[in-house]
């Protein structure tokens, strides 16, 4: 019997991946760049178990058993095995896999990226695979390849007909820009109406804007964003991040039938960020939205306390939700909003409850193994604990 447990991070793209030229292999139509968030706050955890006596492959996600055979989970297992040492005694044994997220699944918070990155990392450890793993994680979920590294990560679309150069590459570590902070404003943590896999293929077949973006917009933005990260130019970083988020959601509307991911609260957050940037006279906060209504806000640490006070004023915490349930992640500095800011920005509070909760985090490292047996999600019989 062998068993390994790993955790892997969420990543939030600042230049979006949307659209595939090969849906089977998850080959994107454009490059993308993301920031990897700290596993101290948000992560997927996966335990992989194998034994010569295990009768069949089994997989559990967040406590519920799922289909294994013929799924992308199965594909990732096959990919790892195909690249592993054929002499390993346990290479052909059946597997029991148990995975869980400590954040909502399929709600536009990049759960699939963290989940597949974690699976592939754990499988790589189980089968002692030293090869580049991001191309295997990509088979499970495209953006999972970016969660194989910490800090700032570039996913290259690749040019090879065999797709072996569509891989993730680190741009800079999480320590490169230590002042960077992230607020995630969770508007809705329910499963999204339009699954990303289906929606992006609809975009590829029906939107003309998506092909213009991939050919004429993204290549230049990739170069600009790469430079902005290396030089720690937040103003340029923020401008590109927000423009790319806006264009991604414009593509969703240009898709036929359209995909609606943002809602009125999302739009109010966008308006507030622009109003605050105008008030400060420069870009100091950047929003980006993945395929869901939840806002990911990048900012530098000196701005955090003041902007958080504005968020808490405009979007009040419901009286019946405890602080520990509403403010999640790292300890968030909180103080009353400055009355002059309220006056100068003409801030108007909404009714309490527009936000479900707030997650405060920062950038972090890539996947890692957990050596403590208490962290395992499976028993020595290969069943969920």
From TrEMBL:
Listed GO CC annotations: cytosol
Domain Mvd1 C-terminal, chain residue ranges per copy: 182-369
Enzyme Commission number, as recorded: 4.1.1.33
Protein keywords: ATP-binding, Cholesterol biosynthesis, Cholesterol metabolism, Lipid biosynthesis, Lipid metabolism, Lyase, Nucleotide-binding, Steroid biosynthesis, Steroid metabolism, Sterol biosynthesis, Sterol metabolism
Pfam families the record matches: MDD_C (PF18376), MVD-like_N (PF22700)
Biological-process GO terms, alphabetical: cholesterol biosynthetic process; isopentenyl diphosphate biosynthetic process, mevalonate pathway
InterPro entries reported in the protein's UniProt record: GHMP_kinase_C_sf, Mev_decarb, Mev_diP_decarb, MVD-like_N, Mvd1_C, Ribosomal_Su5_D2-typ_SF, Ribsml_uS5_D2-typ_fold_subgr
Reactions catalysed: (R)-5-diphosphomevalonate + ATP = isopentenyl diphosphate + ADP + phosphate + CO2
Keyword match Lipid metabolism: yes
Protein's pathway: Steroid biosynthesis; cholesterol biosynthesis
Database matches in Gene3D superfamilies: 3.30.230.10, GHMP kinase, C-terminal domain
Example of a GO MF term: diphosphomevalonate decarboxylase activity
UniProt enzyme class: lyase
Span of domain Diphosphomevalonate decarboxylase-like N-terminal: 8-168
Family designation: Belongs to the diphosphomevalonate decarboxylase family.
Free-text function comment from the UniProt entry: Catalyzes the ATP dependent decarboxylation of (R)-5-diphosphomevalonate to form isopentenyl diphosphate (IPP). Functions in the mevalonate (MVA) pathway leading to isopentenyl diphosphate (IPP), a key precursor for the biosynthesis of isoprenoids and sterol synthesis.
Protein name as it appears in the record: Diphosphomevalonate decarboxylase
Organism for this UniProt entry: Rhynchophorus ferrugineus
Lineage: Eukaryota, Metazoa, Ecdysozoa, Arthropoda, Hexapoda
């Amino acid at each position: 019997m062998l068993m390994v447990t790993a955790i892997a991070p969420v990543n939030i793209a600042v230049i979006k991946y949307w659209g595939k030229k090969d849906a089977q292999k998850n080959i994107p139509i454009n490059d993308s760049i993301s920031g990897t968030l700290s596993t101290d706050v948000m992560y997927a955890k996966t335990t992989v178990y194998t034994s010569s006596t295990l009768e069949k492959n089994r997989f559990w996600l967040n406590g519920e058993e799922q289909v294994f055979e013929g799924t992308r989970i199965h594909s990732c297992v096959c990919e790892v095995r195909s690249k592993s040492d054929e002499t390993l005694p346990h290479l052909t044994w059946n597997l029991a896999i148990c995975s869980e997220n400590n954040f909502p699944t399929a709600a536009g918070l990049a759960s699939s990226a963290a989940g597949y990155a974690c699976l592939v990392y754990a499988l790589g450890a189980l089968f002692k695979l030293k090869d580049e793993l991001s191309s295997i994680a990509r088979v499970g979920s495209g953006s999972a390849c970016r969660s194989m590294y910490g800090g700032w990560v570039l996913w290259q679309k690749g040019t090879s007909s065999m797709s072996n150069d569509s891989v993730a590459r680190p741009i800079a570590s999480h320590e490169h820009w230590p002042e960077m902070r992230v607020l995630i404003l969770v508007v809705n943590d329910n499963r999204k109406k339009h699954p990303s896999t289906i929606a992006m293929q609809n975009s590829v077949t029906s939107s003309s804007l998506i092909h213009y973006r991939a050919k004429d917009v993204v290549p230049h933005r990739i170069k600009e964003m790469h430079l902005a990260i290396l030089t720690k130019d937040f103003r340029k970083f923020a401008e590109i991040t927000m423009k790319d988020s806006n264009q991604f959601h414009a593509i969703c509307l240009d898709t036929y039938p359209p995909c609606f991911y943002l809602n009125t609260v999302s739009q109010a957050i966008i308006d507030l960020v622009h109003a605050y940037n105008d008030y400060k006279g420069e870009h100091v906060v950047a929003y980006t939205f993945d395929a869901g209504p939840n806002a990911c806000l990048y900012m530098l640490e000196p701005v955090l306390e003041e902007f958080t006070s504005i968020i808490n004023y405009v979007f009040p915490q419901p009286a019946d939700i405890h602080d520990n349930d509403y403010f999640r992640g790292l300890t968030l500095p909180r103080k009353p909003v400055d009355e002059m800011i309220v006056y100068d920005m003409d801030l108007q509070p909404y009714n309490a409850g527009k936000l479900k909760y707030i997650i405060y985090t920062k950038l972090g490292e890539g996947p890692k193994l957990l050596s403590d047996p208490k962290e395992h999600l499976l028993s020595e019989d290969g069943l969920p604990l």
